[in-house]
Design a protein that fits this description.
Helix content is about 70%, strand content about 0%. With about 375 residues, it is mainly α.
Length: about 375
Amino acid sequence: MKTQEISSSPSTSTQASALRRYDLDWIRVICIVILLYYHVGMIYVPWGWHIKSVEKSEVMRWVMIWLHYWRMPLLFFVSGAGTYFALSRRTYGSYAGERVKRLFVPLVFGMFVIVPPQIYYERLFNGVHFNGYADFYKTVFNFVPYPEGSFSWHHLWFVAYLFVFSLISIPLFKWMKSAGGTRFMERVEKFATRKGGALWYVLLITLSQVILQPFYPDETHALVDDWAYFAFNILLFWGGYVLVSRPKLWQVMSDQRRIYGWATLITTVILYGLYICVRLIYPAWDDATWYDVVWDINSFCLTWFSVLATVGYGYRYLNRNHPILAKLNEGVYPFYILHQTVIVTIGYYLLKYNLGVWGGFLVISTLSLGLSAGLHWFVIKRVKIL
């Protein structure tokens, strides 16, 4: 990601434009590959998903509990950082037009082409019969939202939210370039340079959830009834923009990475301590209000602290180019769009065989990784409109 400091100083602008944040490219690639393994894991844990294995893994669930609080928040943070880089070399109008082409158009395409096979195989898995895929596909145009109907954006909710975030945030980003916005950003930079200063942003995230979660307690990914989760993620998106827009903070975040790392470790220990208590020692706590409050506050902290730690350590160890990075960076978005449909399709057929939890996980994830990458390389790259 190439960046240019928004500043009236030519020397500062020139200096910043010469820099490139390879670490954020690496983080995005790594995070989306992990996301594929996470979604394969959803087949083998007790949580609801589109297709499920009869055999379940408690170990897998323990790992995925932590990943749940890290993976998508990190992607929203990196996307906010990417917005800063994009706006540093585009007008706001051209940026909005690019967001329509790169987010809205693929979202619509995905809802009519990529997502329906997931619903089709889920229906078949649950015993619903059709006279072939064409017979099922007609139900998409009833425009009845999933799960009652066949119209959905499924995993592309991330693209939908990112599209909305990108457009509604333009006035905020314009204000940040004004005199008042510049003074505000300077104060943010000064505060974030303090020891552990960036950690305190979690208070704003927590406040948003205290206000909104009583009214919107569940993550629906449906946008119109998901305002607590919407606020949670847009604050991460804005956090990525703000922190990465100040080049001085790049080294500060790297220098403070151990602080972020220790904060992540502490909240991780608390997370698993609470989980062990409710699973093995005091099951009644699961219905206690205080337990939910402590769990939620700790999870907000874990999310923000782990994102900061990832970016801090990433800048320290991953901010370097490699010949393969450009190809990975080009393919990671179509890979994301394709991967869940590939997983559901492969999983539907392979779950009929007795592969076991870990054998099935290994086979389905390996085949899904290879097919998703292959579809990008041999189909998407070869067809111009795609």
